[in-house]
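Incident log, structure service

09:12 report received: a user says their structure output differs between two submissions of the same chain.
09:20 pulled the input from the user's history:
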Amino acid sequence: MERKTERDGEKDRKRWRERQKEMERKTERDGEKDRKRWRERQKEMERKTERDGEKDRKKEKEREEMKKERRKYRRKYRRKYRRKYRRKYRRKYRRKYRRKYRRKKGESIGESIGESIGESIGESIGESIGESIGESIGEKRKKKRKKKKKRQREN
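09:34 re-ran on a clean worker, output below:
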């Protein structure tokens, strides 16, 4: 009986050792599986970040394209606006040129007056008076224009 119990004890110990070894192997396998899973998760996260980066780049490209389209639209709108209001600008420029012409006209009128006076008094004196009158008219207009420009700049 004692031998039987000893044998049973030895068998139990052997079984226990085998179970312990199996448990160790199992834990090792589980550890390896965990490591594999962790590596796979890391790879997936990297892929995900790459995809997100690609999405961000696509969004940036789309934004740039929208900006370009807006610029085109602005240009078109400006052109239309310019066409619409060209008459106004033309009138403005016509006035400008008229003023120049008037100045010249003023000088010529002054010269003619001076010449008529000069014939009776003296041509040299008349021409100098005529030129001075024409220049004074021109200078007054120049001063007015300068004042207007200053006001526009301030505003």
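09:41 both user submissions now match this output. Likely a transient worker issue. Closing.
09:42 reviewer note: The first helix runs from residue 2 to 84. The chain has a mean pLDDT of 79.
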